[in-house]
Amino acid sequence: MSKSFLLILNSIFLLNSSSSIVLDCSFNSNTAYAVLGKVYQCNVQNSLSVNSRDDLVIESGNGAHASLKTNDDVISFQAYNKGAQFFPRGLDKVFKNLRSIYIYLSKIQEVKQIDLKSLPNLIYFDIRESEIRYFEDGIFDFNPNLEVIWLTGNKIFHFDTNVFKNLNKISYLGLTSNVCMNTEVGGNLVEAKALIDSVKVKCFDSEFYEFKENLKKLEIEEENLKLENLKNWSEKFENLENYFKNSRFSNLNYFKHKFEHLKRKLPTLLIIFLSQLEHNLQNSQSCSAVDEKLSSMPQNFAQLAHNLVNIDEKLTKLTFNFDNFKDQVEDVKNIPAIMSKRLHKFEIDQKAIKSKIYSIDEKINKIIEILQVET
Q1: What's the pLDDT band for 231 if we cut at 50, 70, 90?
Q2: Partners of 21 in the beta sheet?
Q3: Does the predicted model carry a pTM greater than 0.90?
């Protein structure tokens, strides 16, 4: 598979997954913020439809500024009950001097380092009455000026050990009404530090942490995955995904997305595997040669391959070759039982894949047309 073809595939996934968001702001001054005093803010009026981690806020949209004010004067972003499912990235492109984030009654489940990395001057971070479940190490690495973190009324059950590392200015920390903590501190550095120490003990979920680490290892292995390791990797993938689906944190959208993303990154290896299997079927008269290839097939082959490009064409050819293979093999009546099961499973997998397949050819052609127009 050529690099340009892989680039086109990547463009397709980006085209499908990302979208821009237009803000409708009511601009006004507010004095209700600890440590910040009076601030000029954007109070979002429209629905904040951040339905993907790739959605970006790219322009302010509607809303009249106060006299002599511009987006550069906006210090605080406020969204009240606007339905966001993910943290709205790209705010720094609109409001370059943003120091405060206040989101209330959202559906946000997690906030990542990449969400906050472009906000180095952030002082006030407040997401209340939402769906946040956990925080990972490194999330605040690029926000050393934080003084206020307020997370009241979420569903937090886990903090990695070093979430608050190097945050030496925190004096306001609100963790009331969460799963692992029900305490807050207002305006006291010493008490805030004591609460952080308590969080490290009471809010570390070892089972969840181990799951996250295993998923990270799986992602690292996938980056350098070779065909001979595909079966072993896919078995670990399937085991971990099944564990996740049956875990008490199975409703975390971020990890659902992670597993889907890993599946989508495998087409090249799977196509090579199919091509080799096809070659064996076309050129071999012995059961053993084909059985050797079948035995290396991932158990979750149908699941991994359901969104391969042109998989329906491949499977049609393979079905034809399977039929020919069965007719030509002299000892077909004496096929070992284990190989018979593998053949049967592969035929079932073909049907499963075909039932799930969606047409990517049209999208590829669309991207090619766009690239041709641009050139």
Answers
A1: confident
A2: 57
A3: no
For 11-24, how does the pLDDT look when each residue is reduced to its tens digit (9 = 90+)? 334 334 456 778 88
Q: Can you give the pLDDT at residue 32? A: 74
Q: At what angle do helices 287-295 and 337-356 cross, to 10 degrees?
A: 60
Measure the CA–CA gap between 279 and 273, rounded to whole angstroms: 10
Q: Quick one: 273 exposed, middle or buried, by C-beta within 10 A (0-12, 13-18, 19+)?
A: buried
- What's the helix, strand, coil split of the chain in %, to 5? 45, 15, 40
The phi and psi torsions of 145 (rounded to 5 degrees) equal -95, 5
Q: Cβ-count burial of 52 within 10 angstroms (0-12 exposed, 13-18 middle, 19+ buried)?
A: middle
Domains of the chain (ranges, CATH numbers) = 19-204 (3.80.10), 207-264 (no CATH), 267-362 (no CATH)
Amino acid in position 195: L
Sheet holding 172-174, edge to edge: 25-33, 37-44, 76-80, 100-104, 124-128, 148-150, 172-174, 184-186
Q: How far apart are CA 74 and CA 335, in angstroms?
A: 74
